[in-house]
Amino acid sequence: MKKIIIISTFGLLVVNLFIGLIVSSYHTFNVIASSTIIIVTGLLNYIVNIIPLKDAYRIAHHFLLSLLGVTMFLLMVFSPPHVKDNWCVSISVFLVLLEFLSLYITRRASRNDNNHKR
User: Fold this and answer.
1) Please, where are the H alpha helices in 78-86?
2) What is the pTM of this model?
């Protein structure tokens, strides 16, 4: 599963950069922002596979991270090509922080579940 995440992240990144080179209305800011979202989503999915979680937590996080990753990617593609007064960037930063927080809380809850069973 780890190799699939790495390969799919790299493939999506290459396609995004290639489309950024071809489509003139796809501004450099949007290409960089959407590429960052692809990398962050791939990294978080990879982290979900590395840390010890129960299968239900792992499946739920893969689904949640992928769904939020697609949402943030679309926000970045269609956002205005600047940072100032850009709500799409603000929403995406908030969602990334929410993903990290969710992963941290799930990791703590999973660790506490394992401690109570001993």
Assistant:
1) none
2) 0.86
